[in-house]
Design brief:
- The protein has 241 residues and is of the alpha/beta class.
- The chain has a single domain, classed as 3-Layer(aba) Sandwich (Rossmann fold).
- It is built from 8 helices and 7 strands.
- The longest helix is centred in the C-terminal third of the chain and has 23 residues.
- It is globular.
Amino acid sequence: MESGPSRIDIYEMFDRIAGRYDLLNGILSFGLDSLWRRSAAKYLEPKNSLDVLDIATGTGDLLISLISHQQNIRRAVGIDMSEKMLTITKNKIGSANLGDRITLIRADTARIPFADNSFDAVTIAFGIRNMPDINIVLKEMYRVLRPSGTALILEFALPEKIFLRKLFLFYLRNIVPLVGGVISGNRNAYRYLNQTIETFHFGEDFCNIMRKAGFANTKTTPLTFGIACLYTGDKTFTQNC
């Protein structure tokens, strides 16, 4: 990803498609994106008074899902660099009367503006593959986690079964850019989507990258025949190398 679009290019692209982003997520995933986010919420620690950070929060769907399905969250923070995405999130939070529980900050995921050991959980949904340097982002996630804290990472993947993989790739390469382009007016953004999904690490490869960033007890949970994965990893009391 280091040779791909710059961080600024990516945020500006998301600014351009922000207005139709939620609509297209629902259409292109056949509504499964909501189920995947609810699945992620179940993996939060059941202890009381959790502090949660959602990075690359986008239009806030994961953040709102976590708050809605986990009553033990004391404080939730979402960060993103796309101003238009954050504006949509702010409106959603207001409509859901969650303004007293969620804070939004315009900030870079590669330079998370919090001290070490600040959160019990750090989450990201369908954003890690957009990062120019995923290693830096994972290390930042690890840094701001408290000891025994957990990272939850939702991301697309490619199914292991050959037939399903071919079918999914056909959909990504042909249907997604067409439908995404027509509705958003930005076909390139949805070509970028399929390109990043095809070239990104998934499964055990991604778990290995998480371990190199310091995470322990890494685990992959395939969702919906493996077209998405939930990755989890813990911050232990001693640094892993």
